[in-house]
From TrEMBL:
SUPFAM superfamilies: Carboxypeptidase regulatory domain-like, Porins. The lineage of its organism: Bacteria, Pseudomonadati, Bacteroidota, Sphingobacteriia, Sphingobacteriales. Keywords: Cell outer membrane, Ion transport, Iron, Iron transport, Membrane, Receptor, Signal, TonB box, Transmembrane, Transmembrane beta strand, Transport. Residues 329-757 form the TonB-dependent receptor-like beta-barrel domain. Residues 1-20 form the signal peptide. Residues 117-223 form the TonB-dependent receptor plug domain. It holds the Pfam family TonB_dep_Rec_b-barrel. This is TonB-dependent receptor. It is found in: Cell outer membrane. PANTHER family: FERRICHROME IRON RECEPTOR-RELATED, FERRICHROME OUTER MEMBRANE TRANSPORTER_PHAGE RECEPTOR.
Length: 799
C-alpha cells in the first residue's frame, strides 16, 4: 500500500518537476584573463538573449529543465558555444580566444551604438530578416519594429514603397550601407526599389530612432538605418530562394559562397529577379539585382570589396484615388499610357580596409562610387508648347499652341567619396572614436519631349526635343569624435560632429532670370548621454542630441535668393529603461523631439510662382515607445511594440492661390495653431504570437496604425469631425513555416505568408490639398489603397 501511495505521489509531482524553473549563469573572460563586459550571450534557437555586466557575468533565469546551447560572442574574439543540460541551477563559464584576424563588424562600429548606450535602438540579425524576407521591399521587413509605418504605391510591398519612423518620412531617415550614405544627395530620400532583394545580402541592421549617433550623409530627423551587408562565413554554401504569390508575383534568388579559403580569402555572390503585376491596376514591377563581395583576412587586417547593382522598371501608380473610388474601384489607376514607367539603374562599388594598429587601436578606411541613371516617361494632355520651349506650329492658317505630348525626365548622377574611423580602446572602461567622411555628388538633370501630337502633321510624332538641361554639384564633409567611459555602474557618452555642405544648382535668381547658384551650410551636432546599471541585466538612460538638416533640391530650385528657406534644427531628448531577464526582455523609451524652423508645405508661392516648403518656428514630437518580448513557454513566444505620441505645429499660415493667375492673382489665407503634423498617428502597435513544434511554426502577426492627418491643418467639418485623414487600420498576417534536413540538403524551408488575412480594405498613405478657381474655394484628398487578402509562398534550399 505504501508503494502504491508513493507511486501516486510521484505521478502527481512529475508535472511540477517538469515545470520547475532553473538558471544558467557564468562569467566571460578573454584568454589573457580580462573580463569581457558587454559580451552578447544567447540560448541558441530559444530567443533568449542577455549580456555580460561590468564584471563579465551573465545570467538566464526561469528556465525549464532541458538541453540548452549557450552561445557567447564579443567583437574581436571567436564566438564560442557550450551545451548545458539543466535539472538544477547550472554554471557555464567561457574563455574566448582573441581572433587572429579582424572581425567584419569593426567596419560599421563607428556609426553604431553599443549595447548599453544612452540611445534608442533596435538590432535585427540575419535570422530576423530571413524569417520575413520573401521579396517585399526592405521597409516591409522593418514593419514590426517600434514606431514604423510602411506603405506601397502598388499596394503589395513590391515596387515603390515608403517608410515613416516616428512620423518622419524617408527624406528624414539617414540610411547607410556599411557606413556609406545611401540617401540621395539632393532629394535626401532612400529608394530601396533601386536595390531590389537587398535584404538577401544583409547580415544585420541597427535602427536608431531619433537623432542617434553621428553618422555619414543626410541628417537623421526621425531615425537612422545602419545596414551591414554580407560578412564572413567560414563554410562554403549555396542557397536557392523562390517565391510565388498573389498578383503573379515571382522572386528567384540564387546565392553562394566559398567559405574561408586557406584561412584568408572568401567570396560571396547573389543574383535576384522579382516581378509582380501589383495590386493596383497596371502597377507592375520588373526588378533585377546582383551582389558580389570578396574579402582578404590577414592577421591584423581585412580588405573587402563589394560590387552590387539594381535595375527597375515600374509602371507608375503615383496619383492615388479619391475616397469614393476607395469604395467602388479601389484598384483603379489614372494612368493608361502604355509606357507610363519609371526606369532606373544604380551601380555601387565599395572598397574597405581595416587594420589593427595594436591591441588598442583599430583603423578603418573606405572608398565608394555609385553611378545612377534613368528616367520616367509620362503622357501629358493638352500642354502649352511654350512651357516646353517649343515654337507654335502653324497649320492651314491655324496657330497651334497646345498639344498632347510624351516627355521623359532624366537623371544621370555620380556619387563618390571616402569614409574613415579610428577606434582607440586604452582599457575595458574607456574608448575613443574619431570618424568622418567626404562625399561628392554630381548630377545632370535633363528633360525631353519625345513625341508630340502636333508633329504628326509633319508626318512623324517623334521629335526628341530637350527643353531643360542643368547640372548640380554637392560636397558633404563631416568629422566627429566620441568617447565612452564606464565609471562603476555609470556609462558616460559624448559625441561631437561638425558637418559642412556645399551645394551648387541651377535656379531662379528672381522672377525673370535663372543662373547657377551656390549655397554653403555648416552644422555643429553635439550629443551627450548617461546610462546607469540598476542590476546586471537592467539599466536606465538619458540623452540629448542636436541635429541639423539642409533643405532639399526642391526647396532650393523652387525658391530664389530672397525667399530661400533656412535649414532645420532638432533637439532630441531620449530617456528610458531596458531589462533582459532571460525569457523576458523589455525596453521602454520616452522622447521629445523639439524642432526649430521645420520645413512644411503651406501652399505659399514664391516670387516666381513656385511652391516651396516654408519654415515654421516651433513644432515638436513627444511620445512613449515600448518594445518587449516574452518567451512564455519553451515553444510559445509573444513579441509586442507600442508607440503613443503627439506631434504638433504651434502655428503657421496656409496660402491658397487662384489657379488661373498664380501668385499674381487672388489668394486667401488660413491661420492655424497647435495642429497635428501630417502622417503622425497618435498610436502605433504591433504584435506577434509565435508557436513552434519540432520543425514547424505558426505566427499571427498584427499591426495597428491610428488615424493620420493628410495635411497640417487639422481641418474639421461642420459637425466638428476631423476631415482629410487616413482612417486607422488593423491588419493581421499569418505565417506558416516548415524546415527539414533530407537527402544531403542542409535545409529545405517552406514559408507560407497570408497577408491581411481578414481582408481589410484600407489605405496606408495619401495626400490632401486646397484650390481656388474663379473665386470658388475647395479641398481635395487622395489615397493609396493597399492589397486585400493575398499570399506569398516560398521554397528555400540550403546546400
Amino acid at each position: 500500500m505504501k508503494k502504491l501511495r508513493f507511486a501516486v505521489l510521484a505521478a502527481l509531482l512529475c508535472p511540477l518537476v517538469a515545470l520547475a524553473q532553473f538558471k544558467i549563469s557564468g562569467k566571460v573572460t578573454g584568454t589573457n584573463g580580462n573580463t569581457l563586459s558587454g559580451a552578447g550571450v544567447k540560448l541558441k534557437n530559444k530567443g533568449f538573449t542577455a549580456g555580460t555586466n561590468t564584471n563579465g557575468v551573465y545570467e538566464f533565469t526561469n528556465l525549464p529543465a532541458g538541453n540548452y546551447t549557450v552561445v557567447v560572442s564579443y567583437l574581436g574574439y571567436a564566438t564560442q558555444e557550450k551545451n548545458v543540460i539543466i535539472s538544477t541551477n547550472a554554471t557555464a563559464d567561457f574563455t574566448l580566444d582573441q581572433l587572429s584576424f579582424v572581425a567584419d563588424e569593426v567596419v560599421v562600429s563607428a556609426t553604431r551604438v553599443a549595447k548599453n548606450a544612452a540611445f534608442t535602438y533596435k538590432n535585427l540579425s540575419k535570422a530576423d530578416l530571413d524569417k520575413t524576407n520573401q521579396g517585399q521591399d526592405l521597409p516591409y521587413l522593418l514593419n514590426q519594429t517600434p514606431s514604423v509605418v510602411v506603405t506601397s504605391d502598388a499596394g503589395a510591398g513590391i515596387g515603390y514603397t515608403g517608410i515613416r519612423i516616428r512620423g518622419s518620412d524617408a527624406t528624414r531617415i539617414n540610411v547607410t550601407l556599411n557606413g556609406i550614405p545611401l540617401n540621395d544627395a539632393e532629394s535626401q530620400g532612400s529608394f530601396f526599389i533601386n536595390l531590389p532583394d537587398l535584404a538577401s545580402s544583409v547580415d544585420n541592421i541597427q535602427i536608431q530612432r531619433g537623432v542617434g549617433t553621428s553618422t555619414n550623409g543626410a541628417g537623421a530627423f526621425g531615425a537612422s538605418l545602419n545596414i551591414q551587408t554580407t560578412t564572413r562565413r567560414d563554410s562554403a554554401y549555396a542557397e536557392l530562394n523562390n517565391t510565388y504569390g498573389s498578383f503573379d508575383t515571382w522572386r528567384n534568388t540564387v546565392s553562394a559562397g566559398t567559405g574561408l579559403i586557406n584561412n584568408k580569402f572568401s567570396f560571396d555572390a547573389r543574383l535576384s529577379r522579382i516581378k509582380s503585376d501589383g495590386y493596383v491596376d497596371r502597377a507592375s514591377s520588373n526588378l533585377k539585382s546582383f551582389f558580389v563581395t570578396g574579402a582578404y583576412y590577414g592577421k591584423n587586417d581585412i580588405l573587402r570589396a563589394n560590387v552590387f547593382s539594381g535595375t527597375e522598371k515600374t509602371y507608375q501608380a503615383w496619383n492615388g484615388i479619391d475616397r469614393e473610388m476607395m469604395e467602388t474601384n479601389r484598384r483603379h489607376n489614372d494612368f493608361t499610357y502604355d509606357n507610363q514607367t519609371d526606369n532606373y539603374q544604380q551601380d555601387h562599388y565599395q572598397l574597405f580596409y581595416t587594420r589593427n594598429l595594436g591591441k588598442q587601436l583599430v583603423a578603418n578606411a573606405a572608398l565608394h562610387y555609385t553611378y545612377g541613371r534613368g528616367y520616367y516617361e509620362e503622357f501629358k494632355e493638352n500642354r502649352t508648347l511654350a512651357d516646353y520651349k517649343i515654337e507654335p506650329v502653324v497649320i492651314g492658317g491655324t496657330t497651334i499652341t497646345k498639344s498632347d505630348l510624351v516627355r521623359r525626365l532624366w537623371l544621370d548622377n555620380d556619387f563618390y567619396g571616402a569614409t574613415y574611423s579610428l577606434a582607440y580602446t586604452p582599457s575595458n572602461k574607456l574608448n575613443f572614436t574619431l570618424g568622418g567622411a567626404y562625399n561628392r555628388y554630381e548630377g545632370r538633370h535633363f528633360d525631353e519631349v519625345i513625341w508630340a501630337q502636333f508633329a504628326n502633321y509633319n508626318g512623324s510624332g517623334s521629335i526628341r526635343h530637350i527643353y531643360d538641361d542643368n547640372d548640380a554639384f554637392k560636397g558633404d564633409f563631416n568629422i566627429f569624435g566620441r568617447v565612452n567611459y564606464q565609471l562603476d555602474k555609470l556609462n558616460i557618452y559624448a559625441d561631437l560632429q561638425y558637418r559642412n555642405v556645399f551645394y551648387s544648382f541651377y535656379g531662379k535668381v528672381d522672377a525673370t532670370s535663372s543662373a547657377q547658384q551656390n549655397a554653403r551650410l555648416a552644422f555643429f551636432n553635439p550629443k551627450f548621454g548617461l546610462t546607469y546599471s540598476l542590476t546586471d541585466r537592467s539599466n536606465v538612460y538619458a540623452s540629448v542630441a542636436v541635429g541639423n538638416k539642409e533643405p532639399n533640391r526642391r526647396d532650393f530650385t523652387d525658391s530664389n535668393t530672397g525667399t530661400r528657406p533656412k535649414h532645420e534644427n532638432l533637439t532630441d531628448i531620449e530617456f528610458g529603461y531596458r531589462t533582459q531577464q532571460g525569457d523576458f526582455n523589455i525596453g521602454a523609451n520616452g522622447f521629445a523631439m523639439l524642432y526649430k524652423d521645420q520645413l512644411i508645405n503651406t501652399g505659399k508661392l514664391n516670387e516666381v510662382g513656385g511652391q516651396t516648403r516654408q519654415n515654421v518656428p516651433d513644432s515638436y514630437r513627444i511620445g512613449l515607445e515600448l518594445d518587449a518580448r516574452w518567451q512564455i513557454v519553451k515553444n510559445f513566444s509573444w513579441t509586442a511594440t507600442a508607440t503613443l505620441s503627439q506631434s504638433k505645429i504651434k502655428n503657421f499660415t496656409e496660402y491658397v492661390y487662384d489657379d488661373a493667375e498664380g501668385r499674381e492673382g487672388e489668394f486667401i489665407t488660413f491661420n492655424y495653431n497647435n495642429t497635428n503634423i501630417a502622417y503622425s498617428p497618435r498610436f502605433i502597435g504591433s504584435n506577434e504570437f509565435a508557436y513552434t513544434y519540432k520543425n514547424a511554426g505558426i505566427a499571427l502577426i498584427s499591426k495597428y496604425v491610428g488615424e493620420q492627418n493628410l495635411d497640417n491643418t487639422g481641418g474639421k467639418d461642420e459637425n466638428g469631425k476631423i476631415v482629410r485623414v487616413l482612417d486607422a487600420f488593423f491588419i493581421n498576417d499569418v505565417r506558416f513555416t516548415y524546415n527539414v534536413k533530407t537527402l544531403g540538403v542542409k535545409n529545405i524551408g517552406l514559408n507560407f505568408l497570408v497577408n491581411n488575412v481578414f481582408n481589410v480594405r484600407y489605405a496606408a498613405n495619401g495626400g490632401a490639398g486646397a484650390y481656388l478657381s474663379d473665386g470658388y474655394f475647395g479641398r481635395y484628398e487622395y489615397f493609396y489603397p493597399q492589397a486585400t487578402r493575398n499570399f506569398l509562398l516560398s521554397l528555400n534550399l540550403k546546400f
